[in-house]
């Protein structure tokens, strides 16, 4: 490809994608609200920009074929804090991509778009929205906008409902939800290189034998995860107390995000759970 744009390039996940995406294009334009990284790749250009600045994004996307949108606040927060980067920012990216003539947006959606769904439900990629937080609601908004932009304007979108993406699974819940860093890269590469996608939703999950979701309806993406959280089961399964099946944090796909008060950090709750508190 001639040009790929990556938003959120300084984030925990976006930073993992810079080199793989640079290998797929003549030019990678990375952007973030933070300053440029010190290790720019030979074919990488960095533009510091705010996700609410439509004019800036329209300019930096000129000539881009693909936009990989990973920029956002990656946690629950008060609605007013999420409104700019997560809601308006998603509109900015899709509108700028359309105006620049891009072919596809690959979007970092989240499991929290369906976080109130039961873990035992066995969800496919066509599962309805069931957000657990304002953060999850922002992902539903962006997914619905992506579907609308495809049907009204022909701008393709692949929305990746990313689950627990860490170097290693951090707790017993991650035996179901883990997405390894390697599989994240494989998933994004598949979303970028598949010839035709239309509007597609895919679960961002590794090849965990306990996975509560399925990508079998979007096999055409060619995503073949290689890692399995079960390799850590012996370390993660022992627990000092029996899980409570009536606890929404245990039975809901969003885990602790399903029980935190709206506007309060779900990431902090996961860290407490991983620490055994």
Automatic annotation (TrEMBL):
<keyword id="KW-0520">NAD</keyword>
<protein>
    <submittedName>
        <fullName>Uronate dehydrogenase</fullName>
        <ecNumber>1.1.1.203</ecNumber>
    </submittedName>
</protein>
<keyword id="KW-0560">Oxidoreductase</keyword>
<dbReference type="InterPro" id="IPR036291">
    <property type="entry name" value="NAD(P)-bd_dom_sf"/>
</dbReference>
<feature type="domain" description="NAD-dependent epimerase/dehydratase">
    <location>
        <begin position="4"/>
        <end position="163"/>
    </location>
</feature>
<dbReference type="Pfam" id="PF01370">
    <property type="entry name" value="Epimerase"/>
</dbReference>
<dbReference type="GO" id="GO:0050388">
    <property type="term" value="F:uronate dehydrogenase activity"/>
</dbReference>
<comment type="similarity">
    <text>Belongs to the NAD(P)-dependent epimerase/dehydratase family.</text>
</comment>
<feature type="region of interest" description="Disordered">
    <location>
        <begin position="234"/>
        <end position="257"/>
    </location>
</feature>
<dbReference type="InterPro" id="IPR001509">
    <property type="entry name" value="Epimerase_deHydtase"/>
</dbReference>
